[in-house]
Structure formats: C-alpha cells, structure tokens
Design brief:
alpha+beta; 5-stranded antiparallel β-sheet; globular
Length: 355
Amino acid sequence: MTLLPKTPLVVTFEDIPSLLPYIPADDRETWVQVGMGLKAEFGDDAFGEFDTWSASDKTYNAITCQQVWKSIKGTGVGIATVVKLALDNGWRPEKKEMTAEDKARLKQEAEERRARILKKAEEDDRLRQKMQSEVAAACEIIWRQHCRPAGYSPYLNRKQVKPYGIGFLKSSVLLVVDFSEQERAYVLTGADLKKFFAELPSPCPDTISFRLMKKKGVVIPIIDHDNFMWGLQYINEQGTKKFPKFCKKSGCFHVLGEVSGESTVIAFAEGYATAASFYEAVNYPTVVTFDVGNMVVVGKSFHEKYPSALKVFAGDDDKEKESNAGRKKAEQVATECGGLAIFPEFERVGEVAKI
C-alpha cells in the first residue's frame, strides 16, 4: 500500500523524466493511462517524454505511439493517476524548497497551460463532430449508390461465412476526408478517382486522408441504436480491415439477425467473420463491435436497452499476447452485464493448432 503525502504534490514538467521510469510500459492499459494523464496536464508538450518512456518496452512502435497520442482526448484521467502509478512503484519526489514567488509562477504557468489545452480540446471536439457528420454522409453515398447486397468476396469465401447485411462494391471508390479549412468528405469514382491520385501532392498534406475501396472488398455498415449509419468498415480481399478517418465507432456496431425486446440471447463478437460463424452456429442475433474496447461500450448499451436478454461475449483469446486484452475485456463486460464470456478452444497436435 502506497502512503500518499499529507500535502498535495506539486508535479512540474521537469519531474516527468524522473518519475516515468518507475512505471512499467509493457501493460497497454497502464501505457494509455499514462498518455492520458500527461496530455491532460501538459498537452502536446509532453509527447517527447511519453515517446521516450514508451520506447523502454520491447513492443514499442513509433507510429503506433504517435497514433495513440493523437487519439487521446479529454477522458477524466489526470496527472494524479500518473503520480500514483509512479509512487506505487517506488518513486519518491525530491524535496523542494519553493518561495512564494515560485509557487505563484508555477500556478500561473499551470493555469495558462490548462487554458491552452482546453481551447485546443474544444476546437478538436468541434472538428471531430463536424468531420464525423461529413464522413457519415459520404459513407451513405457509397452504401446507397455503389454497393449491392450480393456478390463475390475472397475474404468471405476464405472464412466460409455468408453475407449478413453487408455490401459488395460495384466498382472501386475513393473516400476522401479533407479536414483542412475545407472540412469536407467526398466520394470519387472512375476518371475522377484517377485524377485525384495524379494531382495529389507529394508528400500528401497531413490534413487529407483517403481510403481506396476496391471492387473485391466488402463494406460493413456501422450504426447506432437509432439505426443511423455513421460509417463503413472496409475489408479488402486479403482480410485487412480499415475505417475512414473520423468515422464514429465508439458505441456503434453491426447486427446479424434482428434484436428486439423478445430476444432471449444476444451475442457479441469483435470481427465480422467471428460474428457470422457464431450466428450461423446458434442462430442468435449477433453484434459486431469492431474491437475489444468497443465491445465493453456496446455490450453495456445493449444491456441497458434489453436487460432481460442473456448477453454472450465471444471473445478473442490472444494467448500469444501477455496482456490478452481480448479475454480480459470480454470477461469484464460479461461480469458487468451478468452474461457469459466464451472463447475458442484449441487442440494442439504436434506443431499444428486445431480449433
């Protein structure tokens, strides 16, 4: 048990390099919490320290680190969480004698920093909401004008599952998300698609993102409880899964079958192929949550809407990963919803694993 100081700690930016090494960077949940706490207190100025600390883990990936940092928004996790993690692991702050002037200066600097962070967070939130609406409208065009309910998919054929409420592209389409001053998302096909790539500057501006969806791929609608479509997940013929930038995913899902107040069992799975396999096996409505973190959010929302139905969470058991987030999150949400968490069982014969 860690005994916290009787008086609140004054943690400055200069303290970060000394306290972070006390926190293990190999647990993803802790890693994200540290990022949230640093960004909430110090804004983007703290990314360098976060990146340096992250590199102490053998699984460190610079691109992933940057992506996660950029994705962190206001979450309620503050610097106190980071300090607590460091204290729990043996860090002790240096005793500092501060004058009244030092304290006043630190207070003013903190207030100014928080004002800048708040202003940026408000602008980021405004842009996010605007672009989510733009992406939703563009995906609606793709779904209505460029998809059909039946077709051939190498991915589905390889997974040996059928299509349930998904779309097959009639031709290749390009979804462009421009979050410069234009703040718009639009769809290109045919000659316009080719013209876009011919005129695209190199390097591509940071404010432009695009997703090429080819004919042999499939798209899965991403909806909410009001049946509003916020976007599309694109799965190419190799099985790579992609979402448009700014696509709203949290709390959204895709349903195989029909959920109603009469449903006695509702199942949940991260990916479409797992959900389709489960649905075909048991014939219960099955919800695709797209990732394990969203499984928790979506599972709870369905539990609130359909409290009497048994919730079954078909989790991914990532035994090769030390954190095994697939199992942990499925078990967590199952417990919170009074449901069941189930996982595939593997039989190992020689060097070959069979399911």
